[in-house]
Amino acid sequence: MNKHASSDGFKPIRPGRGGKGKGRAFPKGRVLDVAAHDDIIALLAPHQPLQRDMLIEYLHLIQDKWGCLAAGHLHGLAEEMRLPQAEVFEVATFYHHFDVVKEGEEMPAEITIRVCDSLSCEMAGAQEIIKALGANKPDNVRVVHGPCMGLCDVAPAAAVGHNYVGNVSVEKLQIMARKAETKPQMPDYQPLDAYRAEGGYKQLEALRGGSKSPDDVIQTLLDAGLKGLGGAGFPSGQKWKFVRAGQGPRYLCINGDEGEPGTFKDRYYLHARPHQFLEGMLIAAWGVDASAAYIYLRDEYPAARQVLLDEIARLEAEGIAPKGFIHLRRGAGAYICGEESAMIESLEGKRGLPRHRPPYVAQVGLFDRPTLVHNIETVYWMPKILAEGPEWFASQGKGDAHKGPRSYSVSGRLKKPGVVLAPAGSTVNELIEMCGGMADGHRFKGYLPGGASGGILPASKGDIPLDFGGELAKLGCFVGSHAVVVLSDKDSMRDAAVNLLKFFEDESCGQCTPCRVGCEKAVKLMQDGPWDEALLTELTRTMADASICGLGQAAPNPIRTVMTHFKEDVS
Amino acid sequence: MSGKTIKFTLDGREVEARDGETIWQVAKREGTSIPHLCWRDEPGYRADGNCRACMVEIEGERVLAASCVRKPADGMVVNSQNERASTARKMVIELLMADQPAREDAHDQQSSFFKWADAMEVDVSRFPRDDSPKADVSHPAMAVNLDACIHCNLCVRACREVQVNDVIGMAFRGPHEKIVFDFDDPMGASTCVACGECVQACPTGALMPKSIVDEDGRGTRGAEREVDSVCPYCGVGCQITYNIRTDEKTGNEYIAYVEGKGGPANENRLCVKGRFGFDYVASPERLTKPLIRKPGLEKGINMDPLNPHTHFREATWEEALEFASKGLRDIRDAHGGNALAGFGSAKCSNEEAYIFQKLVRTGFGTNNVDHCTRLCHASSVAALMETIGSGAVTAPFTAVKDSDVIVVIGANPTENHPVAATYFKQAAKRGAELIIMDPRGTAMKRYASHMLQFKNGADVSLLNAMMNVIVEEKLYDQQYIQAHSEGFDKLKEHLKKFKPEDMEKLCGISAEEIRTVARKYATANAAIIFWGMGVSQHTHGTDNARCLISLALMCGQTGRAGTGLHPLRGQNNVQGASDAGLIPMVFPDYSKVGDPKNLEKFEKLWDAKLDPNPGLTVVEIMDAVHNDKIKGMYIMGENPAMSDPDANHARDALAKLEHLVVQDIFLTETAMFADVILPATAWAEKDGTVSNTNRQVQMGRKAINPPGEARDDWWITQEIARGMGLNWKYSGPADVFAEMKLAMPSLDNITWDRLITEDVVAYPCPAPDHPGMDIVFADRFPTATGLGKMVPAEVLPPDELPDAEYPYILSTGRQLEHWHTGSMTRRSYVLDAVNPEPVVQMNSRDILKLGIKPGDMVRIASRRGEIEIMVRQDNQVPAGAVFIPFAFVEAAANELTNPKLDPFGKIPEFKFCAVKVEPAAGGRMEAAE
Known about the structure:
The structure holds two protein chains of two kinds.
Chain A: H1 34-44, H2 55-66, E1 69-70, H3 71-81, H4 85-94, E2 100-101, E3 111-116, H5 119-123, H6 126-135, E4 141-146, E5 158-160, E6 163-165, H7 170-178, H8 192-197, H9 202-208, H10 214-224, H11 236-245, E7 250-256, H12 265-272, H13 274-287, E8 290-297, H14 302-318, E9 326-330, H15 340-347, E10 371-375, H16 376-380, H17 382-388, H18 390-394, E11 405-412, E12 418-423, H19 428-434, E13 444-448, E14 457-458, H20 470-474, E15 483-488, H21 493-507, H22 513-527, H23 533-546, H24 550-554, H25 557-565, H26 567-570
Parallel strand pairs in A: 1-2, 3-4, 7-8, 7-10, 8-9, 11-15
Antiparallel strand pairs in A: 3-5, 5-6, 11-12, 13-14, 13-15
Helix pairs in contact in A: 1-3, 2-3, 3-4, 9-13, 10-11, 21-22, 22-23, 23-25
Chain B: E1 6-10, E2 13-17, H1 23-29, E3 55-58, E4 65-66, E5 77-79, H2 83-97, H3 112-119, E6 135-136, E7 142-145, H4 154-162, E8 168-171, E9 178-181, H5 197-201, E10 207-209, E11 225-230, E12 239-246, E13 253-260, H6 272-276, E14 291-293, E15 312-314, H7 317-335, E16 340-343, H8 350-364, E17 369-370, H9 373-376, H10 378-388, E18 405-409, H11 413-416, H12 418-430, E19 433-437, E20 450-452, H13 459-472, H14 478-484, E21 485-486, H15 488-495, H16 500-507, H17 511-523, E22 527-531, H18 533-536, H19 541-554, E23 564-567, H20 574-579, E24 586-587, E25 591-592, H21 596-606, H22 618-626, E26 632-636, H23 640-643, H24 647-656, E27 659-664, E28 676-679, E29 688-691, E30 696-700, H25 713-723, H26 733-743, H27 752-758, E31 760-762, E32 788-789, E33 808-813, H28 829-834, E34 839-842, H29 844-850, E35 857-861, E36 866-873, E37 881-885, E38 898-901, E39 908-909, E40 913-919
Parallel strand pairs in B: 1-5, 16-17, 16-26, 18-19, 18-22, 19-20, 21-32, 22-23, 26-27, 27-28, 33-37, 34-36
Antiparallel strand pairs in B: 1-2, 3-4, 3-5, 6-7, 7-10, 8-9, 11-12, 12-13, 14-15, 14-28, 24-25, 29-30, 30-31, 33-40, 34-37, 35-36, 35-40, 38-39
Helix pairs in contact in B: 7-25, 8-25, 8-26, 10-19, 13-16, 13-17, 13-19, 16-17, 22-24
């Protein structure tokens, strides 16, 4: 050994006088937990090769298997997908149905009871149920609130695990939790044979056989007056034209993220006649020569999901749909993903942030390709329109100004709430009538013509046709997804507006300032005392003018319309 | 889109948009300033349109539009200044203001947020406040105060899209949205590499350099004086801006913080060293007075670097210079010039390198002058000179923007060339295939389409097998080969025996993978090769480089956009120092010393008799000291006691010298052996030019005054020269540069004045108004024939293979935070805090096998020395191998390394020697105090 060597007695003095720190025994950041990593490798083995756009599906696999997303598993997933940890984490924490559990944190309880506290359910006593359940619950149960579950006709609604039920009571939920009844209950739906027996899939076969060109069908849809029934009301035939103008490959995306509070028609059709929807979807895919069809179904509809899984498999087996052509994707608890570009982001496995327009998704959509996005009900009507003719469909409405039938989801203070198939342009007074009138002891005070976003109108405006545009638009309201919530003299319009704004605050993606901060500040301003109408007016104007997407633009509608029509409730 | 002009109306005026400009960009060009927070008007930043501070009205549209993302269309009528747009923008600011800290408590009182708020006259908010998140001060370099965060996600884009370090995310949702590091971990516990891009991008002060916020988180950006310069660390050559403030107590100016500047190699980006590693200049360990060794004390690494007075006494400059010169003079006069040698430094400027080598050649009378290029890329340069006639890169690393295939072999750019790595990662994200070949996994693996973790030292077998595939499958570029190369037929014959199936066992990469990668490289439209010291630091380093060159030549993958050969140069001025002639076998501009033409030219220029024989290289010089051939040395800014292989041997040599003059800013391990130490100025304290890995010559500027009596290196060298009898009268670096232009045709059209005004000019430079060439050798190579030569390489094993006694392979190198021998970085607070102790990186399987835990101490021994060091588990290192950075004197890796040299480049095999690893008794060693 050498006299200058550090090992030879003299310990060299390190330069710099910091010298207190300890070296790291591992590289920077958290240490990969080998066992957790192995869990993920095993879990994902059947899904190789992994795809970036499947991230949310993989997160579901983990959440379903272990009841949460443990940091170790997330790290393993990031490793396997070769993604930054932050990218996995930001997606996992965006969606409310994922429970991220970091090292040293407690696992969520085995059973989650999610109580809907959207307007119809809140009017039916959701808060009391949450309070009562929370006060007296076993250790293996947790109680959380959730947004609209599409069970407004049977409010109050709740979910025990994946079991979504209506007409719940505290006792009923406690029993379900005790018995761990967490699996969805399957609806009694029309099977493939029955659908075929009534002529199902004939229209699709004919089109595939060359009976009509896509341009013919576009004209048929335009003649029928079919409009986007997810809420935007854009003429469907026109959409096909735009998408077809772009170079392939093109995609079809079905927006099954029916989250607008008060809306449950899509669930209704999926639970009743799934094949009419599926045929309509395949017709639309044919219409734009789509390379694949994606169905984005909200996670609150597990029964409908099972129906679709089973029936898509059947279609593939029967050769009606090519194997792997239809991709059924599962939302994860994010209202914003009902916004079409946010849905596309989510389909790509990202946070559901709406995109800027232009470009429109018809030009640059899923995987940056031209994309046709249709609501479930929109395609549901397509086989029928082709079979019965556009005139038949158009004539279902109230005259030339209001073409076609509409599926109104009617809920609130009514004797018999439910999906009402009525002529486009029906009024709320007519719908109340069709629902058996107001519930006993309730006097009609006001209504939401179009879910949480469409504003609130007084009973005095009960004879306005509920359709896209028209008189409703002149009042600064809209019909959207045709979710009509009826309020009575027992309801405070301030409470209703606060409920809606809290919903928007919860569901804002957070991307843009007016919506993220605006909703949060609005809720604070609306809760107590008389409203500062001047400030709220300024705020609502900027939210409507400067938010990126419809959520933020429409979120102030309840504030604005309550100030206009129910001044006495807020001053 | 590009090229088409769009006419539209902006605020009542007809304007034009070009090249896909947004409304905001047109407005800016037209002189209208539209507020913006989430939009950063700098290269690499995508407009995101989320803050809504830049809303404008487009007539006919229902809602306002974000001008930063929206592109105008023909005939559009845009109002940026009307009531509707201004009101919305003001409301956005007021909403954000509601949750900001009070102005007097702000983390950045000069933030863009406050500037825009002032411009819009918003000073209070009428909205109720939300809860404020707590501060995160876990990181030594940066303060995270998310109470000021406006969720504009600029930091996310900075981290993920610009630097592609992928640490920051925007997690949660709505009002709960939060900037997170990894899984919402404290910044200091995350995978953050502290590039500080987020800090530079943050418009509110939510992310700030800790150096400019107080303990309560209050602070402000801004400086009394800004000085533009170049980073002193790696070969990337990032341009920087020093922000200078005055210390109220001492009245001295200091560097408060550093920001990236828009240089061609970095476009504002920096790494942790370049941003946070500047406080070494203010270290109490700086040398401030000339020192002369006290008599009778043993030479060795045996003193406290803070206190040289145990072994040295202070002297005046006059005395020290005379002492230094006389010692050298006496040896020269008694034993001849070849008894002297000089080590210059790649950390000094071009001008300093130039006069240093001129001093050795003309004042000492020997060509024994070398520097650390010998230890880095000497073999690469040897191969490049031999084959294509130029040792510099054929394309800058930014050329990857046009590449389809990028090969990175034997290099770990995220650690060693972090800003270059950002360009590679961006290219991979854009869709280019990134092929990494390295025995060690690297952080870039995540972005690679192919990761070939071949066996240590098996480069030639892998590369020859790839070329075998290209030849057998006729994937080569016949036209290019015919027009631009020679030696293909011979190589073709040679390659026959390197079938992938036969090489598979040698290199550990499957034949199938070799074929795939070979095909991808050969058939790419534009493929480029980068290599580092994993290629060069071998006894077969020149052969490795020859293979890479042949590969590029046979596929015609050089001389076009997106193609080329690029050895990633290590030090900030290793290119420039080499160009300037700090190499024993060549005069400036690689003019061979033996060539009579060159002798004549330089003897005339320098008015001196020159030695026609090449001098000795770094390791040879140390051997010559042992052999009593060399007796005196002048070392400027180099630290061979740490950087030379078999460091004990080198240290013995230093101790043995009769006279050693060391010129440095610190009492380095080498300076501890000196007879006289001359205190020099640090990079931030002087003017001078440096040349980066891209051949870009850049201007470094003096930012602050040096401490005590420290003097510029060029001045000290000149004084030594005068002491050696030379009549030098350079007035400063500009004067030296003017002479260099006479010596070096490569500097044609590059003048000091140009560099002062333009900051950077690349060479070769064809005209006085040309920025310099980025891609070179499109038509011909600078060889006698104009052709590039393919030289066959045989498979040779590394010099010292593992055996039963020494079963592990030791590889050495650098780490992100520590530069070279650590003399600067270990004296930087942040760099030391992030990486304070020496570690050996080992695979978990070996850790298990040894029965130890990560964090335990082990003893590592080779045939040359042994060290004790802490174990870091890092599975990027393959089992059977260990990796030790060589920056730490407490466990100096080079006490173990093998000094065996590559026969052509004379570079030692730092990347391969045999060691044994044993648990050390006593567990974890306390850091020496």
